Amino acid sequence: SALLFSAPAVLSPSSLQKHNIKIRSLGLDDFDKGLCNVLQQLTTVGNVTKESYKKQFLKMQTQQASYIIVAEDMQTNSIVAAGTLALEHKFIHNCGTVGHIEDIVVDSKCRGKGLGLFIIQELVRIGDTLCCYKILLDCSEKNVAFYERCGFKKKEIQMVMYLPHNEKIASSL
């Protein structure tokens, strides 16, 4: 199966190996392995068909600005966790790059095994390899303590503006 990006092999820590879980890049066939079902535990996914998943996957693969990793339960061949590192290329900081960690989710049946922490650590490692000068993430207040344990610290304030007409456009692609 095609992978979103090629990266050095990720060695799952022994704590994940005993649970028969493999961490890897997002694959083209992960739609069939339940990626969207896991993402629905985080937020609204919408009507993502196999065809729209493939189209978006190939766009992401071409643009090389999104690094999505998944945790696959090797016994059930299902995705049980995921996370994204999105790159923002800047003119400031010597034309530097900022990484944005997004969409961290662990299946409710698999929480408490260290998957979230390992996915965050792996995304930070990828960001470091890609020479990001900083990595940002937004989270709800209830998740602050978890991300602090991952090495992040609270800084400033996040603001958002939702554009409802773009939600309709995105769902029709």
UniProtKB/TrEMBL annotation:
It catalyses: D-glucosamine 6-phosphate + acetyl-CoA = N-acetyl-D-glucosamine 6-phosphate + CoA + H(+). Belongs to the acetyltransferase family. GNA1 subfamily. This is Glucosamine 6-phosphate N-acetyltransferase. It is an enzyme of class 2 (transferase). Residues 21-173 form the N-acetyltransferase domain. Its EC number is 2.3.1.4. It holds the Pfam family Acetyltransf_1. Pathway: Nucleotide-sugar biosynthesis; UDP-N-acetyl-alpha-D-glucosamine biosynthesis; N-acetyl-alpha-D-glucosamine 1-phosphate from alpha-D-glucosamine 6-phosphate (route I): step 1/2. One of its GO terms (molecular function) is glucosamine 6-phosphate N-acetyltransferase activity.
